[in-house]
Design a protein that fits this description.
The chain is of the alpha/beta class. It folds into two domains: 83 residues, no CATH class; 267 residues, Rossmann fold (3-Layer(aba) Sandwich). The chain has 14 helices and eight strands. Helix 2 crosses helix 5, helix 6 crosses helix 14 and helix 7 crosses helix 9.
């Protein structure tokens, strides 16, 4: 047990450089090994995190609180290290190749295309937008998750690079996602996918961008997404309207979300713009079919579910699934049985709808 504790302590020391395999080995330790670092696991809203997830949530909160502007190379690497380590076993689920897509300024931006074995021509495509609070995150960080989604949903996945808040403020990220999606549609034949089976998928801040882009694009029949699949999305800049904002403290807290929203969208008017707060849109009836996954123990839970209610009231085909006893950021944590099962269910929901 002492060796387990030492390994976990090293994992959350940002000065210690562990490779993907070492991180994966540590995260895969028995759940009991996480008890010493997990500390108190409070029961909140009738839910409790496992020792592994509590430990990860506590460590992630400390890292998020310390994130500088711009993030240091070590801070960027820590996020990438944890994401890749949690999904290392899924890296081989699909082949991958790098390419470029249009960016929001007419420039070229990086992207990565994932394709599982024996996928027929004319398959569906998920254009994936990574999370990270508009501050961190990368194509590389989500490598394992995107490969898994491709195989599990039997589609191709195109993971987009977009400008983070410290590179360019609102609406730069939104513009990059819209441009990348429309470029994917325009190049459907080249990518070997069906033009009418292209979805937008994102988690957290990526789901914020995906939701806003989906609403924006839906008015144009040429680029209307087949589906918007959103994992614990940030959809409303007015955090204090929702009870869950005050219920949970890790890995996200109200203060962290409040800060990160303002790093990306500093002006009050920006945070009321539907390109940032899709809940501010007066009309949601044109939104494409939408699947929303929320985490039961997440600051953003209630606003994601409120978005689903508004979509339903607007006549949009929508499904909302709350995954209880899970924190923000659970998608892709394949080393945890409950988080893995939730990620598998989300992939199946995408498969059924594309």
């Amino acid at each position: 047990m002492r060796s387990h504790f030492q390994a976990l302590s090293r994992l959350f020391c940002m000065k210690h450089r562990l490779g993907d395999r070492a991180v994966h080995a540590v995260l895969s330790l028995p759940d009991a090994a996480f008890v010493p670092l997990a500390g108190r696991r409070p029961k909140l809203d009738g839910q409790r995190l496992s020792p592994r997830l509590q430990c990860l949530a506590n460590g992630a909160k400390r890292a998020l609180e310390a994130t500088a502007v711009p993030p240091t190379a070590m801070q960027l690497k820590l996020f990438e290290r944890l994401q890749r380590g949690a999904a290392l076993a899924q890296m081989g689920d699909a082949s991958r190749r790098d390419l470029t897509v249009r960016g929001g300024e007419g420039d070229n931006r990086r992207a990565r295309l994932y394709e599982p074995e024996r996928l027929p021509e004319g398959s569906g495509l998920a254009v994936f937008v990574h999370g990270g609070g508009w501050q961190v995150g990368s194509i590389e960080a989500y490598d394992g998750l995107c490969a898994f989604l491709a195989k599990a949903a039997q589609i191709k996945v195109l993971s987009l690079d977009y400008r983070l808040a410290w590179e360019a403020r609102f609406p730069a990220g939104f513009d990059d996602v819209v441009a990348g999606f429309t470029d994917a549609v325009d190049r459907a034949d080249e990518l070997g996918v069906a033009r009418d089976r292209i979805a937008l998928v994102g988690d957290s801040a990526g789901a914020n961008l995906a939701a806003a882009a989906a609403l924006h694009l839906a008015a144009d029949r040429r680029y209307r997404p087949k589906l918007a699949a959103l994992a614990y999305p940030a959809v409303d800049g007015d955090l204090d309207r929702y009870e869950s904002t005050f219920l949970f403290r890790s890995p996200l807290s109200r203060e962290i979300v409040h800060r990160d929203m303002r790093r990306y969208a500093p002006a009050d008017a920006d945070r009321r713009d539907p390109r940032f707060s899709v809940m501010a849109a007066p009309d949601l009836s044109k939104m494409p079919a939408t699947y929303i996954a929320t985490a039961g123990m997440d600051v953003l839970r209630d606003q994601g579910e409120a978005f689903g209610e508004r979509l339903h009231e607007s006549g949009v085909e929508v499904a909302v699934r709350r995954f209880t006893n899970l924190p923000h950021g659970f998608i892709g944590i394949f080393v945890d049985p409950r988080a893995r099962a939730a990620t598998e269910e989300i992939a199946e929901a995408i498969r059924e709808r594309i």
